[in-house]
UniProtKB/TrEMBL annotation:
Pfam families the UniProt entry points to: Glyoxalase_6
Residue stretches spanning the membrane: none
Organism field: Neobittarella massiliensis
Residues in the signal sequence: none
InterPro entries referenced in this protein's UniProt entry, alphabetically: Glyas_Bleomycin-R_OHBP_Dase, Glyoxalase_6, VOC_core
Protein name as it appears in the record: VOC family protein
Ranges for domain VOC: 6-122
Domain of life: Bacteria
Amino acid sequence: MADQIKLADIVVDCPDEQKLCTFYQELLGWSRSEMFGHPAVVSENGVMFLFVQEEDYVAPVWPEEPDKQQKQLHFDFLVPDVAAAVAKAEQLGAIKATAQFGGDHFVTMFDPAGHPLCLCLAD
């Protein structure tokens, strides 16, 4: 049975599915698609992010704080040039996190919906 289970997509809840889809399409250069009536982006090797608009969406807080919406996951993206990737992400609407723990290895950002993501130096 386990060999029959395959990842279909990663659903990303957000307040504006079109805006967040455009952000990731432009940041990652993935193809735009649609699944179940929602916008999506797909990588060359078939990884799909599906964006679903939630009216009561609450952005996570990172680093975590008591009694605040906690992050459930975050994305790590390998990039050849961290500074260039940060600049591109900021141009597209991402915000660099105030707290940074990656040194020269990665920078933590927040996408336009507040999800944390790391731009990590590809070795």
